[in-house]
Write a structure and sequence with these properties.
It is a single chain. The chain is mostly beta strands. Helix content is 13%, strand content 62%. The protein has 3 helices and 10 strands. The strands form 2 sheets. Strands 1-2-3-6-7-8-9-10 form an 8-stranded antiparallel barrel. The radius of gyration is 29 Å and the shape is elongated.
Length: 230
């Protein structure tokens, strides 16, 4: 009789232990890697759903390639705005636009414009307004405090080339294709933090050809604010 009682108690103890290991909150079961209600509560929303990230940055532009034949000065007037849809798999898709303005003034000289010879101060200007789609891969999960990334952007840009000779001008305006690979990092104050800072280096190539320019190229170095939300 005592043996029967002991066997019954042992079976009840084994059953109760197995039941407890399968309950939410017991991280020892399956090394805590199984999908259960407890783990889903602990998992960040950024890692479970598509979320959003917006950035606004100010930058300087360094002319490259044949762009230097027209303007070889650093451009201090550049702004970029990006909106991204962030996926749990550490990549994002988005849209990017901005405003880039370059200017350089040359000393007064004598120029031949058609049949007319004039003495004038030459002021060279170039305005680029990009509109591009972006794709980025992040080297940290969407909820991380520090998120380095690589990005590629492609689309087009509206280019306004205007070279002033005093009150006269040589102007050309057109929309051209553009590509822009970039690297950068976003730094938030803490894991799952909303507001943070961002720095980026972007090489931009606009397939624009006119006079001195055979593809408008520049290196954009920018910094600004970024905000993620869901």
């Amino acid at each position: 009789m005592k043996l029967t009682h002991l066997l019954t108690a042992a079976l009840l103890l084994a059953a109760s232990t197995g039941w407890a290991q399968t309950q939410p909150g017991n991280t020892d079961y399956g090394n805590g890697k199984e999908t259960n209600a407890y783990n889903l509560i602990r998992e960040s929303t950024y890692n479970r759903y598509v979320t959003f990230n917006g950035s606004i940055r100010y930058g300087i532009g360094l002319p490259m390639g044949t762009s230097r034949n027209y303007i070889d000065k650093v451009s201090p007037a550049n702004a970029l705005v990006t909106m991204e849809w962030q996926f749990p798999q550490q990549f994002s898709l988005g849209l990017q636009s901005g405003y880039q303005y370059s200017q350089q003034r040359l000393p007064r000289a004598v120029y031949q414009l058609g049949d007319e010879t004039i003495s004038a101060v030459q002021t060279r200007t170039l305005t680029i307004t990009p509109v591009m789609a972006t794709a980025a891969y992040y080297f940290a999960d969407p909820a991380a405090a520090i998120r380095p990334y690589v990005q590629i952007a492609g689309g087009g840009a509206f280019v306004n080339y205007t070279n002033f000779y005093g009150v006269l001008s040589d102007a050309n305006k057109k929309f051209a294709g553009a590509i822009a690979p970039a690297i950068g990092v976003k730094v938030f104050g803490k894991r799952e933090g909303g507001l943070g800072g961002e720095v980026q280096a972007q090489y931009q190539n606009v397939f624009y050809n006119y006079n001195e320019i055979n593809n408008a190229q520049n290196l954009m170095l920018s910094a600004g604010l970024t905000f993620r939300f869901y």
